[in-house]
Amino acid sequence: MMPTLDNFDVVLAAAKGGDENAASVLFRSYHPILMRYLRSQERRVAEDLAAEVWLAAASSLQAFEGDEVGYRAWLFTVARRRVSEHRRRSVRRRTDVVDPVAFDETSAADDPAATALDSVDAQHAIDLITRHLSADQAEVLILRVVADLSARQVAELMGRPVSWVRVTQHRALQRLDARLGAKSRGNALSV
């Protein structure tokens, strides 16, 4: 379910004016869907990329003009650019990744288990999408469904024609149905 702010214009104006509470409302409303998108693109560095996106968004917020749908499209444009920049940097500068097991002994100040449980279903869906679809199909589907962007907005974001976005989304849904629908129909028959 997409977050909706009943008074988006008021919240945006307050955030532009430096109101920390308004900025917090924007963050809490859009951070979960932003994280789902970033995890679908670069799982290991999604948190770092999210931080970069929010810093860029905060520094450019004064220049933003538009409604809530436009804000969402703008935020995901920033996110996609950060993912692209990360990939370019990664190719130039290889590093050794630390095994996540090394962090098992560290404790967190907050309750990540509660946060994780809140987003398990959505993240499971994202994982299925990225596992069964090509990168382009997964990105289109996530931007259309999770980010709730229009086909036109996704086309602009990805630098593709609107017809390509629609066809890619259609093929992605058909592919998911062929792969996952058959499994669920088979499970229904065996019950």
Can you offer a commentary on this structure?
With 191 residues, this protein is mainly α. It has two domains: 1-94, Rna Polymerase Sigma Factor, Chain: A (Orthogonal Bundle), CATH 1.10.1740; 116-191, Arc Repressor Mutant, subunit A (Orthogonal Bundle), CATH 1.10.10.10. It contains eight helices and no strands. The chain has helices at 8-16, 20-41, 46-60, 68-92, 112-132, 135-146, 151-158, 162-190. Helix 3 packs across helix 4 and helix 6 (135-146) crosses helix 8 (162-190). It starts with 7 loop residues before the first helix and ends with a helix. The mean pLDDT is 83.
SSE layout and pairings?
Elements: H1 8-16, H2 20-41, H3 46-60, H4 68-92, H5 112-132, H6 135-146, H7 151-158, H8 162-190
